[in-house]
Amino acid sequence: MDKALSGVRILDMTHVQSGPSCTQMLAWLGADVIKVELPGRGDITRGQLRDVPGVDSLYFAMLNCNKRSITLNIKSAKGKRILDEMIKRADVLAENFGPGALDREGFTWERIRELNPRIIFASIKGFGAGPFEDCKAYEDDRTGDGRLDEYHRF
User: In what order do the strands lie in the sheet with 32-37?
Assistant: First the structure.
């Protein structure tokens, strides 16, 4: 029995919670979701709240089950070429990077649309148009000192 989104391919360039929960729902509805992760680390939630050492966390598994996964370095020329080909074959590209992250790698909306004019671009951000639209909505505390950067002090 076909599901509502059978035959739809989602390029999932999301991480942590907002994006993965969105693309997970699409996968449960039958979409072919391909999660793109950083080489050597993957989605940071693979190691967060880990119950068993050396195993993906339950948190990661709950938000990313029913997806396929690939690691890809989009900062390299080869990675950019591979992403170009993946965009050409996708129906939807979902991302939740900080503002401008894909643009800085050369994947502006204009470039994405040039590669695939029929693609749906789902960009999940913490803030809409207004004074905070260029601010990050989430940043894990990588330093461990509990301090937040300037975007978080409002």
Answer: 68-71, 32-37, 9-13, 92-95, 120-123
